[in-house]
Amino acid sequence: MLSAKRLQPIQQLSEQREDAAAEALAEARRQLAQRESQLRELENYREPTGSLTSVELLLNREAFRLKLNEAIAQQRRAIEQSRRVVEQQRQRWLASHRQTQVYDHLAERSREHERQRNEQRAQRDLDELALRSAAPGSPT
Fold first, then answer.
1. Which of 8, 37, 110, 127 is disulfide-compatible with 4, CB 3.0–4.6 A?
2. In the chain, where the domains are located
3. Which of 24-33, 77-86, 131-140 has the lowest average pLDDT?
């Protein structure tokens, strides 16, 4: 079994990867929120059709509405893409988090194993000392 000391660099690397994955997930979530906010702004920009006075104004308004509708559709596609990125980053973070937990568990087991070995060694030393002091002719 690897010693806890030898596992430490692997643990640290795993934690760094997990932190990087968490940061990437947070950034993906921020982007998604920003795109959703932009969509709301675009949708709020639509105004109800009022009474129009000229054909030219009507055509301009209709062209604007078409462009606005296209911008909204494009923003919705961007949001769906952002949602996929968020899910991918979430999966990446989960995988790195599980990896970190594995290394943490392995290091903990290694420390426990080392502790038991040290306790056994100390007990063996005490037993030897007790045997020597109980032996005939030994100074007490």
1. 110
2. 4-132
3. 131-140
For tokens 């640290």, name the residue: 12
Query: Are 3 and 110 within 8 A, CB to CB?
Result: yes
- Average pLDDT of the segment spanning 72-82: 96
Q: Identify the residue with better confidence: 26 or 132.
A: 26
Gap between the Cα atoms of 4 and 103, Å rounded: 10
The CATH fold of domain 4-132: Helix Hairpins (1.10.287)
CA dihedral sign of residues 21, 26, 27, 32: positive
d(CA 93, CA 34): 21
- pTM value? 0.67
Distance of CA 125 to CAs 3, 91, 115, 131, Å?
23, 51, 15, 10
**Nearest of 81, 105, 96 to residue 23 by alpha carbon:** 96
- What are 15-24's pLDDT values in tens digits? 999 999 999 9
